[in-house]
């Protein structure tokens, strides 16, 4: 049995799709599951007796629903945090957006832009344009340095989000592994959460 769901499927529709399948051992695969879709898939894995295994690639962390600083109650309806271990942790929208970036791809983009800029400088003949470029060059360099330092924290934030999901499953007694399946230069979201149920009544 193979069923493909649309990327915009609602959590309730996703649950009914799986819960309506009887006497089946189901492997749920989420390829680049956007925002809260990842959280819904994880809850589906936990709640459905039919689901025996899970392979999940998350993405679009900036679209996760989060508990803001004014909210003190841990609510399982949010996309982050999911686990009890990280229930007190809060991430801002900027931090979640940062987790979406890829340092490997950014380095390649910078190298490409350097070549393009060198070519543009070579063919430039407008004195006014050269003056304008020189006037903002120092500020641009400072901004670039700050942005590069900021990007160093991107993998840390992403790993915390993934670890929260891993702990969510382990707290419920399931076997969980994180496996790098792709070259990060090809696909920045290359870490797969692979989970198996240690016991499944219907499997």
UniProtKB/TrEMBL annotation:
<feature type="domain" description="Methyltransferase">
    <location>
        <begin position="21"/>
        <end position="65"/>
    </location>
</feature>
<dbReference type="Pfam" id="PF13679">
    <property type="entry name" value="Methyltransf_32"/>
</dbReference>
<dbReference type="InterPro" id="IPR025714">
    <property type="entry name" value="Methyltranfer_dom"/>
</dbReference>
<protein>
    <submittedName>
        <fullName>Methyltranfer_dom domain-containing protein</fullName>
    </submittedName>
</protein>
<dbReference type="InterPro" id="IPR052220">
    <property type="entry name" value="METTL25"/>
</dbReference>
